[in-house]
Specification:
This protein has 174 residues and is an all-beta fold. The chain is 0% helix and 47% strand. The chain has no helices and 16 strands. A hairpin with a 6-residue loop joins strand 13 and strand 14. The termini are far apart. The model has no long low-confidence stretch (mean pLDDT 90).
Length: 174
């Protein structure tokens, strides 16, 4: 008896009559499926049989997100993104003003973000990290940018009527 692949080994290579043959198949560290054959023949080579062995490839987690970048105005709103994965994952946001409706899942999911109003005039940014669970983890990031409020100035009152003599008054700026 013999194998056509080195990753398959036989505990016994010869024998007589009814017998059991221990077979050892080494770990497949590749993500590719692989095949081997074990061939058994009689001593005079008049009879022959073949055993086919098929071994799955090692698991490789997949993870992607679309879109990778989200831009919104300063008002409170919602935004969505799609996660595509073949395994369990977790999600976390770097900022409390950008909260996802779920923080973990499995496989493909549509995520909705609740984004709070940005009253500041400064643009702000949140990083949403999605990471697969397990040894061979993968990570994806969604960047959420929210514009700042428009700058404005207002005065009150916006009209003053004064006499011809010296006058004083107050104008409020906001």
């Amino acid at each position: 008896a013999y194998s056509n692949q080195t990753w398959v080994s036989l505990g016994t290579k010869s024998g007589y009559g009814n017998n059991s043959i221990p077979i050892t198949v080494n770990e497949n560290k590749s993500t590719d499926r692989r095949s081997a054959e074990i061939t058994l023949t009689t001593g005079d080579a008049k009879a022959k049989c073949t055993i086919s062995i098929s071994q799955e490839g090692a698991f490789s987690p997949a993870l992607s997100v679309t879109p990778n970048n989200i831009s919104v105005g300063n008002s409170s709103c919602t935004a969505t993104a799609n996660i595509t994965s073949n395994t369990d994952w977790t999600l976390s946001s770097s900022e409390s003003w950008c909260a996802a409706d779920i923080t973990s899942g499995n496989g493909d999911k549509k995520i909705t973000f609740a984004i709070a109003e940005n009253a500041s005039t400064t643009e702000r940014e949140a990083k949403v990290k999605i990471k697969t669970v397990g040894d061979k983890s993968k990570e994806a990031t969604i960047t959420v940018k929210q514009s700042g409020a428009a700058e404005y100035i207002s005065i009150s009152p916006d009209r003053l009527s004064v006499s011809s003599s010296k006058s004083t008054g107050i104008v409020e700026l906001t």
